[in-house]
Amino acid sequence: MRLTIDNFDNAGARDYTANVNTEAAPRIQRKLNRPSRLTVSLIAPTPDFIVPANGARIVLERADGQRLFTGYVSIAPEYEHMGWGERGPMYRYSITALSDEFLLDRKFIAERAPFTNRTAGDMLKQLANDCAPGVFDTSAVEGVETLPYYAVSPQVKWSDHAAKVAMLARGGYRAQDGKLYFSAVGKNTYTLDEAAAEFCPDGLKLSSPDVLVNDLLLIGRTEPAAYVKDYFLGDGYALNYYLSHTPYLRRQTLLEDEYKGSAVDTHNWTTADPARTIAVSGGRLRVSGGTGVDGATTVTFVEAVELGGALMMQHGEVEFSAASNGVIGGLYSGATDVLHCVAGFRITPSGSQSNISTIVNGVAAGTSLVTQAGHRYALTTRTSGTQVYRTKQLFHSSQHPAGNARGGTTISGDVHLTLEVHDIDPNNAGSLVSASVVLYDGVVTGAPAYCTYALVNSTGLQCAVSFTRLMRGPEVEVASTLPGQSAQMKLVGALAEGAQCQYTSDPAVRFFSAYVPAPNEAIRVSYRSGATAMARITNPASIAAIARAGDDGTRAGIKSLASPPPRTSAECEDAGLALLDDFTRAAWTGEYSVWSDFLPEHAADICPGDAIAVNAPSRNASFTGVVREVEVECADLVNDRSQYSIRFANDAAETLGFESDAAHVGYVPDVTATTTSEGTTFIADLPMADVTAITSITISVRTGVAPPSGGGFEVRRSDYGWGMENDRNLVGRFTAQTFTLPRLSSSQTYYLRQYDAGSAPRYSRYSTALHISYPL
After folding, report:
1. How far is it, in rounded angstroms, from Cα 66 to Cα 44?
2. Torsion of CA 176, 182, 188, 192, to 10 degrees
3. Do 55 and 149 share a domain, yes or no?
4. What's the rounded Cα separation, in Å, for the pair 521 and 478?
5. Is 577 helix (H, G, I), strand (E, B) or coil?
6. For residue 300, what is the domain's CATH number?
7. Residue 198 belongs to what domain range?
8. Quick one: pLDDT band at residue 700, thresholds 50, 70, 90?
9. If you average pLDDT over residues 208-212, what whole number do you get?
10. Is 110 in contact with 132 (CB distance < 8 Å)?
11. How many other C-beta atoms are found inside a 10 Å radius of the C-beta of residue 507?
12. CA-based nearest residue to 132, from 109, 165, 164, 156
């Protein structure tokens, strides 16, 4: 073997092999999805010995060129005086080095938007290129799995991000010799067969702990639960309207760009600018024309935008310098052109000024506004989806590896769109707090789950944009109806952004004084309440297999997952099924210690993430485990021989694709057990149910859908006890799409679910809560 160290002193890599202390052999420690570590002891026999520098490049390789370790000295060498030799004092230096990620871990992680709907491999490439552009060869990085979402924190090291991304994708990464490797775990599988000639019986240790679980209660995050509609009546004075439930909130800034510096920030945007018409200066993104070809000149957000929940897209304050043509703030499904524009602001010439209108699903929609010279126009798109998430989370197991995960399906949904313009006149201070003009307010049915966001699609724009901000906000919609008129959406947000009301943490909706609801103005506030996501999953086959007299075969467990995060009860089901894929199997851990000469056939080296297929009939063991750790002791440098200690385990013994939290529950909730995922246990919810009329003694309800064949709609005074066997809080069961409920007080709440005609009727997963607060 050969050990070389480059101290970056312009002398190149020096050969330190002769200085290796043979009494303490070099040792390499490898762990799955963690930096590798090399410890080596060097003897300095002469005064001219060059002490390795902190940060020096170190390489340990075999005579055949197989590199066992490449990395950097991570701390200053520790030295020990060993006495005097023939040529003077002698020292021993203890060297510790970390693999090539050491270089990436010493860089800042750039502030960037969360990765959305991208492969794990793309994420690793992007993070590596952000930290050290062009330094690492990423040709061996495979995509492995498309992840719906991953947020990047600048306070976390590159290697920690890489470990988390790899875990979410059930992949394994390593960095060696200036190259990143990333693939699904188990891509390389080696057989450990006790009948093989190279097998070392004394080197194999196996253990099979009893960790069987076949009845699992899984606890996730706070989820969007009941569909709530609160109804109030204005009196001309009240500004605050207190909500009946606490809304589910998902506040997050996806993008904020103030256009500082002199170039477009490539962490936020990609540009196509063949005519060189896009520039950044004076805190503005400036566009001075285009090629005249739709989609040829664009500024596009680097991440996809998920059309779920509440999203406010502030495209910025736009000032037009001449008549313009193009699209600003466009959401696109497919190509970035007008035909594929789901929603955006269409800018067209109007004499020497510009006309601002809207485009929805590729065609003109809504009303328009003509610009005035010197004015600024704050353009905002608000989206509110019937579904908060548009793709289910991914969960892996040994039976559902990368590329075949549980979950990951697209969730269909509609999106309510509001496109508004806030006209700001610099010579009129009152315009700063005037209401925005809504150019379009409508619903896109069957909206795409993800869209490309292009701030600019210029065929001939002449304008400057002062900022751009994309935010997830409160999932709260407010509408009001004046007597004899149709319902109008009320903009929720800050007064300076042209909004008319805001959500407060009371929880309440507070109207600004300029927009106090008029007497008898009917107000409706729609949102989702929050609840803890959870599911209970059982495996009847496993239960039956071990049942005996006095033991029903149940082996229960409670688990709270930190990552991947189950965001809904349906995702808890998928996660629970993935865990029971392995928890109902025999658990095995093992360690194999052997000289490199006797590694499994075809294994020149063994790395964490490789799979070991064990066939040991003498120990009643036949399983495949994933290598978690490898320790290589280079005990015979002259003959290129090393002692390997390989630790491996299957997912039943050590879960590979999950990180757990302590399960903090005061009691075991009464959760209906299921053996399958969403689609067989529950039927559809009633998100469109609403109140159509309110009198002093009745409430008229419309469910928005026809009743299931042979089933109907169940109404209760509280959100529990659903089922035919419980009538304690039951109001009634109805088989018509519209029905009337009694009104018993000024403030009252009813809960609705639908049920089918099964012998054990299935119900909606989430309730719809209809709350009224009207004077009698």
Report:
1. 27
2. 70
3. no
4. 13
5. helix
6. 2.60.120.200
7. 189-211+587-649
8. very high
9. 94
10. no
11. 18
12. 109
Single out the residue of 537, 522, 611 nearest to residue 574, CA to CA. Answer: 537
Q: Crossing angle for the helix pair 120-131 and 158-169, nearest 10 degrees?
A: 170
Last residue of a domain, one of 99, 119, 141: 99
Same domain, 93 and 125: no
The reply to whether 95 and 111 lie within a common domain is no
- Residue 457's nearest CA partner among 598, 542, 345 is 345
pLDDT in tens, 593-645: 999 999 988 788 999 999 999 999 999 999 999 999 999 999 988 888 999 99
| pLDDT exceeds cutoff 80 at 363 | yes
Q: How many domains does the chain have?
A: 5
In this structure, are residues 9 and 53 in contact, taking their beta carbons and an 8 Å threshold? Answer: yes
| Pairwise CA distance, residues 637 & 432, whole Å | 76
Q: Are residues 55 and 146 in the same domain?
A: no
CA of 63: how far to CAs of 18, 68, 637, in Å?
14, 11, 9
Instruction: Let me know if residue 179 belongs to a domain.
Output: yes
Q: Whole-model pTM?
A: 0.92
> 707: which DSSP letter?
P
Structure tokens given for 604: 């020149």
Residue 72: C-alpha distances to residues 7, 95, 101 (Å): 10, 10, 9
Please tell me the predicted confidence (pLDDT) of residue 663: 60
pLDDT of the residue at 382: 96
The pLDDT value given to residue 529 = 96
In angstroms, the CA 675 to CA 694 distance is 43
76, 195: one domain? no
Which of the listed residues 452, 473, 494 is the one where a domain comes to its end?
A: 473
Same domain as 159, residue 21: no
